Amino acid sequence: MSKTVQVYDFTTRKISSIPASELSPTMMESEVEGVGLVWVDASQTRLGPYCHPPFAEDLLYYLRKIKAALDEVYPLSLEQWEDGFRRDRNVTDHIAAWVFLALVYRRCTAGRPLSHAQRLDYFKVLLACLSSPREHVFQVVQFDAITREEAEQAVKFFYSPQE
How much is the pTM? Predict the structure, then answer.
């Protein structure tokens, strides 16, 4: 029997259950205020208000690290990174998660002659790890330029970094 997940629709404000195998690549697990932990379509989300003032240099240092590592596949300005994180209630946890994602991305790609498409696939796999439980990663990510084995290795690095 297929495991089901709870999906929240922002338009109808209703929760439905679907088989986990039917999650689309645009779906992510998210804590929705007043609803709880559910799967949502990322395209339906909106920017919330700022929760934090402009960042001091100590936090900007980490944003620069994230940007430097991921710019080739996720080209946001430093201001865009800061803007997104300032809206985040759990800012330090989420910055730490993105720093970790950037480290794993570098581990997967450093020193290898990879195409842009391959690098992008590694990023998509790791982004799925960041927003989904391990058992759902391959249900919500699509990749073409890397092999399943390469994707599985990236997932392993993300969830078991000491290996």
Answer: 0.82
| Residue 111 in tokens | 């020193």
For the chain, domain boundaries: 1-46, 48-159
> Degrees (nearest 5) of the Cα angle 71, 74, 70?
40
Q: What mean pLDDT is reported for the chain?
A: 91
Residue 56 amino acid letter: A
Residues 52 and 156: their CA atoms lie apart, in Å, by 34
User: Of 89, 110, 107, nearest to 159 (Cα)?
Assistant: 107
CB 54 within 8 A of CB 82: yes
Using only the alpha carbons of the chain, give its radius of gyration: 17
Q: What is the pLDDT of residues 11-64, one digit of tens each?
A: 899 999 998 878 877 787 888 888 988 888 877 777 788 999 999 999 999 999
Structure tokens at 124: 């998509």
Q: What share of the chain is helix, strand, coil (3-state, %, to 5)?
A: 50, 15, 35
Is the separation of the CB atoms in 24 and 41 below 8 Å? yes
